[in-house]
From TrEMBL:
One of its GO terms (cellular component) is Ski complex. PROSITE patterns: RHODANESE_3 (PS50206), TPR (PS50005). Keywords: Repeat, TPR repeat. Residues 107-164 form the Rhodanese domain. It comes from the Eukaryota. GO terms for biological process: RNA catabolic process. This is Rhodanese domain-containing protein. The keyword Transcription does not apply. The keyword Repeat applies. It comes from Nelumbo nucifera (Sacred lotus).
Length: 1187
């Protein structure tokens, strides 16, 4: 119907043109109608050729009438290309359409498709370039041109075209993918990853983008991200070979990273997953060489890195179980190496022309031989690794790496040297060849040549491990110190964690005294996993654990070393077993297992290995077993062998004999023996320390005459400072009594010594420790400034105090150290200590450096508890504290001893757990922890606090009978800690538990007798508590008297003056007398002056008092001071309201320097309402103000 109407309209327009040919409007309408009719017929005749031909007639008419309409030529081109199949006419029509409108993407794409089908790629490029040059918005041309340039590998030009095309098609994933490929080929990997990522964002199923971005990430070493990309690609296309290959390669690279960082088990698990993936790839495409080669690489790496794990089976006590474990580990490595060799052989079968596969087979076969522990073959017999290496050289004889491989795999020294030299002839800067040549020369005894070769290798490539290891071996010829050798070997281990290098590092650490280094500990742990059959690895592991005071682990390591010697190292010399047995006996003795240590010494005695070291351990073990006669007998045997000993061993033996005589026979016997010794035997620093220590304990001073001669031998800095430390301790003992020590005498000596040796960490830390032990308030703050924190891995001086421990204890001892954050409290102490946050960070660092250190965990717990107390026990800190308590109690069971210090630590940990439960509202758990603490064997003065905590818990529960019972128990136990009586007095006042009026006061004063210098401060605090009790009873007169007395005792405490001023203000309000206003003004003024920082509320109260006395100027001044007393983030609404009042008073004053003039009084009032909208007083003022 519409077609008929259009044709009638068309005829009418044609007749109008004939009648009036000069009228342009008739022509325009005719062209427009002809085009619309043709378009209608074209769409209607989509599947009908007749209608399309009829539509073309109208398009032809439209083209004749309007030759500048590009759409007409577009549809004509569609007709000739799709209906009549006349490509030449279609091309001309499309070209005409593009000439008229270069932005016509449909015509452009159709023309390019025609040219592409005809193979005219160059014309296609010309068309796109012409369109892009004519119009910058011809995005289709840039897109097509970019694709063509990618196809022709013109990457730089393609990047420009694709970037321009993306402006028109920003959501086209194909464009982003092509752009990523262009960037990738240009080496612009970061830009390529971003482009591929954008394509994946638009279509997450773009497998090509996922795989290529994964390959780039593997190239950049980002194996973890690359693995994620390949996994996502496999989710979309599970059978994609490239994705399987990339995922296996990524897991291989990630596993190597894990192995280099020491995570062998994790690396092995990644390799197992990679092996499964690459095996699936072989089923999908078993004729691809690179897949079989990758399979071999994965299996070979797995065979090299698979760790041996003890798994906590106590293999050291069962030789058969240890043998089975080692055999199982070796068999697994051996089978995996054989599988790797088979995979390489399959790859060689598919591509026999690839020489690198020959080298891979040679390496895998060499690993198989090493795991089989084959005997050295005859020098004239060529082994399979050598033959396979020659196979690779036959194909590529000028490859220097292949020559180096032959040199490494060959057992013939002449062939090895020839191969390495040939590699250097091909590339003189080949550092690997120089390194292995140095190793060969070292093995042949040519130390000069070896040193030169290692120097060449290190200068060419400092990142190579072998030259650094070789440098550490040649310490004597190079004139290096043990410390320098240790650093060189450590560098080698950090570059390449080989068991051979790690064991050498352990030996050098033993020689240089650096066994406590965490790096050495990690290296030897890895050596044990890689070489469990090597007794040296287990023995060094035991020495390191022993140096860290982890004796149980040391015992296990030594037993494993014994098993390795007896079951595996058949050819090991007898001295190895002897050394390990001595180490085991020593660790057993230090661990408190004297019986087993004595049995080990008896075994060595039966074997005829009883030398001075064994005798020393044997004597100590017998003494610990209370077999004093036998211990003295062994000591006599030891003394008889002293003349035949070296000087160092003789000095150690004499020192031990003196100690045993002192502990077994008494002080007199030890002094008599020392007096009888020849003078030349006393000329030793160790003997000097023993003589000085015994003389300090002897009130008769019978060894006083020997001291000058023995101290004359002290030469080194460490010996002299150590002697000063001992002298300080002797003064504590000599001037003190059995019940207490005189701390100040030792402090005075150490202060003098510190002037002579200001850098001595021993003196500084001991001085800090003594200051902490004193009861002087200021000494706690001085202690933190005295102490020094030694660098990590610095060997600790035996008997010295830890700087970390002193800082942590000081932060706990001084509550002011945790009150510096004004969000929670205001610091009023004049003595500045370390900030609690800094102390907490240092405790965390200490525990991180020494995770086995129980004191570090204990002090960290106390510091976190201090932080939680400061912040009112927030939930997240309570959770942290509970975890720390569980960890501390769990570890406590492993190392707990029966000495007082460990029991006291457990007592404090249980009190911490009880306090945390109390603050969390778990009263039952609180009571349980406090009850467990009360059962420990600690002094009554400490048990007092467990029952005090129980008293608090029962009070919160409302269990008054039990509360009263615990209150009486506290009175019975008593304590010499003043804070305990203050807390008990507080509970007594709150709950009216008073039995005897003066009992707590008398006990409190009794506890102050030992600390007369702090009498005034503690009595002021006690009077403050009495004033608080009077306030609870509404007896404000008594409260004022108590607080006035407190102020007179501690005149520098601003908090006491604030409390006294507030009570006086309350008494004045109750009209008890105008004199209280004057008292209030005096106390509040002193509070202002005494505080190191402005205290809030003080100025407000003082302003009220001054206003009551009629002083308006002082009232205004103090209100302004109150504004600055508050931190900006914590100012309350009342302070803003005070500024509103001042602003209203100051409206007529032109001075704008006052704080209230910074904004209008109305804004001050609105801010107060905003902070406290529940205050009706503010709303009334606002209503009055607006009214």
């Amino acid at each position: 119907m519409k077609n008929t109407e259009d044709e009638d309209r068309l005829r009418e327009l044609q007749e109008a043109i004939y009648s009036d040919p000069d009228n342009y409007s008739h022509h325009y309408n005719l062209v427009r109608l002809a085009f619309q009719t043709g378009l209608f017929l074209w769409e209607k005749g989509e599947d009908t050729k007749e209608l399309k031909e009829k539509a073309v007639e109208h398009f032809v008419i439209s083209a004749k009438l309007n030759p500048n309409n590009s759409h007409t030529f577009q549809f004509l081109g569609h007709y000739y290309s799709r209906v009549s199949v006349d490509s030449q006419r279609a091309s001309k029509c499309y070209q005409r359409a593009l000439t008229l409108n270069p932005n016509d993407s449909e015509s452009g794409e159709a023309l390019c498709d025609l040219l592409d089908n005809e193979g005219k790629e160059s014309l296609e490029i010309v068309v796109c370039k012409e369109a892009s040059e004519k119009s910058p918005r011809a995005f289709w041309a840039f897109r097509r041109l970019g694709y063509l340039q990618v196809h022709q590998k013109k990457w730089s030009e393609a990047v420009q075209s694709l970037q321009h095309a993306i402006r028109g098609y920003p959501t086209c994933a194909d464009l982003w993918e092509a752009l990523g490929l262009a960037y990738q080929r240009l080496g612009m990997f970061t830009a390529a990853i971003k482009s591929y990522g954008r394509a994946i964002e638009l279509e997450n199923s773009r497998v090509f983008a996922l795989i290529e971005s994964g390959n780039i990430l593997l190239t950049l070493g980002s194996f973890r991200k690359g693995v994620e990309q390949f996994r996502q690609a496999l989710e979309t296309s599970p059978c994609n070979i490239a994705a399987h290959y990339g995922l296996a390669s990524g897991l291989l690279g990630l596993s190597k990273e894990c192995v280099n960082s020491g995570a062998f088990s994790w690396g092995a698990s990644l390799l197992e997953e990679a092996s499964d993936i690459v095996k699936k790839s072989t089923f999908l495409a078993g004729n691809i060489t690179c897949i079989w080669k990758l399979c071999g690489d994965i299996q070979l790496t797995y065979a090299k890195c698979l760790p041996w794990v003890d798994e906590g089976q106590k293999l050291g006590t069962n030789e058969e179980a240890f043998r089975t474990s080692i055999f199982s580990w070796k068999r697994k490595c051996h089978l995996t190496a054989i599988a790797a060799s088979h995979s390489y052989q399959r790859a060689l079968h598919l591509a026999p022309w690839q020489p690198n596969i020959y080298i891979d087979i040679a390496i895998s076969v060499d690993l198989i031989y090493s795991l089989e522990e084959r005997s050295r073959p005859e020098s004239d017999v060529w082994q399979l690794p050598e033959k396979m290496s020659l196979g690779g050289l036959l194909l590529e004889g000028d490859n220097d790496d292949f020559w180096v491989s032959l040199g490494c795999l060959s057992d013939n020294n002449a062939l090895k040297q020839h191969a390495l030299v040939r590699g250097l002839q091909l590339d003189v800067s080949l550092a690997v060849a120089w390194a292995y040549l140095g190793k060969l020369y070292r093995k042949q005894g040519e130390k000069q040549l070896a040193r030169q070769a290692f120097d060449h290798a290190r200068s060419i490539d400092p990142s190579l491990a072998l030259p650094w290891a070789g440098m550490s071996v040649d310490t004597h010829s190079r004139g290096c110190t043990p410390e320098e050798a240790f650093e060189s070997c450590l560098r080698a281990v950090q570059i390449l964690p080989l068991a051979e290098f790690q064991i050498g590092l352990g030996k050098l650490a033993f020689d240089s005294g650096q066994l406590v280094s965490s790096q050495v500990f990690a290296a030897i742990q890895q050596a044990v996993q890689h070489a469990p059959h090597c007794p040296e690895a287990h023995n060094l592991n035991g020495l390191i654990c022993e140096a860290r005071s982890d004796y149980e682990s040391a015992i296990s390591a030594y037993k494993l070393a014994q098993c390795a010697i007896s079951t595996l190292a058949i050819s090991a010399p007898k001295s190895h077993f002897y050394d390990v047995s001595i180490n085991l006996a020593r660790s057993l003795c230090q661990a408190g297992n004297a019986l087993d240590a004595a049995q080990e010494c008896e075994f060595l005695k039966k074997e005829g290995m009883l030398d001075s070291r064994v005798l020393q351990i044997y004597a100590i073990s017998l003494w610990k077993l209370r077999k004093n006669d036998l211990a003295l007998s062994v000591s006599r045997n030891l003394a008889a062998s002293i003349p035949t000993m070296e000087r160092t061993s003789g000095v150690v033996s004499i020192s031990l004999i003196c100690k045993l005589l002192y502990h077994i026979s008494g002080q007199v016997s030890a002094i008599t023996s020392i007096m009888k010794m020849p003078k030349e035997l006393l000329q030793s620093s160790k003997i000097s320390f023993i003589v000085s220590a015994i003389n300090a304990l002897d009130h008769s001073k019978r060894l006083e005459s020997l001291i000058p001669s023995t101290r004359h031998v002290l030469k080194s800095y460490e010996e002299i400072t150590g002697m000063h430390s001992l002298i300080a301790i002797s003064k504590l003992v000599r001037h003190g009594s059995e019940e207490s020590l005189v701390i100040q005498s030792g402090v005075n000596h150490l202060r003098k010594a510190l002037h002579m040796y200001p850098d001595s960490s021993l003196i500084r830390n001991q001085l800090g420790h003594l200051l902490l032990s004193s009861k002087e308030w200021k000494d706690i703050h001085i202690a933190t400034r005295c102490s020094i924190i030694n660098p990590p891995d610095c060997p600790a001086v035996r008997g010295s105090k830890s700087g970390y421990g002193i800082l942590g204890a000081a932060a706990v001892a001084c509550y002011a150290s945790s009150t510096t954050d004004q969000r929670f409290s205001f610091h009023t102490c004049k003595d500045q200590c370390m900030d609690g946050a800094r102390a907490l960070q240092k405790m965390q660092r200490w525990l991180h450096q020494e995770p086995w250190n129980h004191n570090a965990r204990y002090l960290l717990l106390l510091n976190v508890l201090q932080k939680a107390r400061k912040e009112r026990f927030p939930w997240h800190l309570c959770i942290t504290l509970k975890r720390l308590v569980l960890s501390a109690l769990f570890n406590e069971e492993q190392y707990l001893k029966k000495d007082a210090s460990h029991i006291y630590q457990k007592f404090q940990i249980l009190l911490c757990a009880s306090e945390i439960s109390l603050q969390s509202g778990d009263h039952i758990d609180c009571i349980n922890h406090a009850t467990n603490a009360s059962k420990l064997l600690v002094p009554d003065g400490n048990l007092f606090f467990a029952h005090l905590l129980l008293c608090r818990a029962y009070a919160l529960q409302g269990d008054f009978p039990n509360m009263h019972k615990e209150y009486l128990k506290c009175l019975q136990l008593k304590t010499n800690h003043e804070i305990g009586w203050i807390c008990l007095k507080l509970i007594e006042s709150r709950h009216k538990l008073q039995i005897d009026v003066n009992k707590i006061e008398l006990n409190f004063e009794e506890s102050l007798k030992e600390n007369r210098s702090s009498w005034d401060k503690w009595m002021a605090i006690f009077n403050l508590l009495q004033g608080q009790s009077s306030i609870w009873g509404h007896d404000y007169i008594s409260a004022e008297e108590a607080l006035a007395h407190a102020c007179s005792l501690a005149g520098a405490e601003s908090c006491l003056f604030l409390c006294h001023g507030a009570i006086c203000m309350e008494l004045a309000r109750q009209q008890c007398g105008s004199q209280f206003l004057s008292l209030a003004v005096g106390s509040l003024t002193k509070a202002q002056e005494a505080s190191i920082i402005p205290l809030p509320i003080v100025s407000t109260l003082l302003a009220q008092a001054e206003a009551s006395l009629g002083s308006r100027a002082k009232w205004e001044k103090n209100l302004r001071l109150e504004w600055f007393s508050w931190p900006p983030e914590t100012r309350p609404a009342e302070v803003y309201f005070q500024m509103h009042v001042l602003a209203r008073q100051a409206d007529s004053i032109s001075d704008s320097s006052y704080v209230e003039s910074f904004q209008s009084s109305q804004k001050w009032l609105l801010r107060a309402i905003h902070l406290n909208p529940s205050c009706l007083r503010y709303w009334r003022v606002l209503q009055k103000w607006t009214g």
